[in-house]
Specification:
By secondary structure, this protein is α+β, with helices and mostly antiparallel strands. About 50% of the residues lie in helices and about 10% in strands. It contains 13 helices and eight strands. Strands 1, 2, 4, 5 and 6 form a five-stranded mixed sheet that branches. Strands 3-8-7 form a three-stranded antiparallel sheet, with no helix packed on it. The longest helix is centred in the first third of the chain and has 33 residues. The radius of gyration is 25 Å and the shape is globular. InterPro entries: DNA/RNA_pol_sf, RT_dom.
Amino acid sequence: MTAYIKKEIKARQKAYTTGNMTKYRQLADKIITLIKKAKAEFYSSKVKSKRKHDAVKWHRTISQLAGFEGDNLDNNLISDSTSDTVEILQNIFTKPWSKLPETIIPSLEDVASSLRQENPPTPSIGQVKTALKQLNSKKATGSDGIPAWVLKRYCEEQAPIAHDIICASIKECEYPTAYKRALVIPVPKVNPPRDIENDFRQISILPQMAKVLEKLQLKLNLPSSCINDNQHAFTSKRSTVSALTNISQNWFNVTDHTHSAKNGVHALFIDFRKTFDLVDHGILLRKLAEMNVTKAFWLWTRSFLEDRRQQVKLSGTLSSVKPCPAGVPQGSVMSPALFNIHINDIENSIPDGLSINICKYADDCT
């Protein structure tokens, strides 16, 4: 990838984000030609001469350039067609849900005593316009087909319409059905992936308007103080740095040689498997109610979780649609906050009297 090609790619992306589709298409065609030429030149300089004189080195170099050794690839990754592969991935991603016990979703009557009876606050048109302006133009387009750059560039014109949609959703305590279908993109955990069942992470591509709605709903209705201080992920002014500082300071305090008794540290590192995908909706909704949120926000969140569906997308090919009976979609604005609520009380299972400090970073517990 030459500096000139990178410059042209940057110009192409700028044309796309500003809506100049004529220039975008011209640059896209030009870049394809430049990349083909660069690949040919790179091939000639690296491996062409070896093909005739040293076949073994030629094959090894080709494998290295591709990023894998062919013999190490799992046979399951090889399929006759993209449509077969995309269905295999869909079945793999939804397989954990088939083993789950049926969850019991609490009714409003079950949790009404824990909820605040207040009218839900709604955003102003100005707040909606600001949220539209803050969208990342480079983010992928969701199932509604509306790209982020359209909402961002035309935020003045779109704000009143978006405001009506958002306010109706909040007041009626209903999450729009059209926003519940996610396009799932399989992202390799390792490069190259060798095991189709374990080497892919599913990332949900959701409508950009859904992200605006969720962002404003969280800001207006879920206080950040409801999450314990030992959670360092998805919370304001917290990060991996604060998590490491907290852990190391606790260990230093225990092992400090100035104390009369020198103590040791026993550390346990826990990483839960598929935690976002296996969040129990019934348990989550009960925990949300215990945080004394408003009745309207609780009902809206229940609607957000209900009847979600997903399709896997690979190289332009879509799988069949399947329901999502558990979990929170990775890629949603709501999901990190809901996950933090779900894992918020994990330390309550520790018996009293034990000197144990827990530090959480999402699903990683120390």
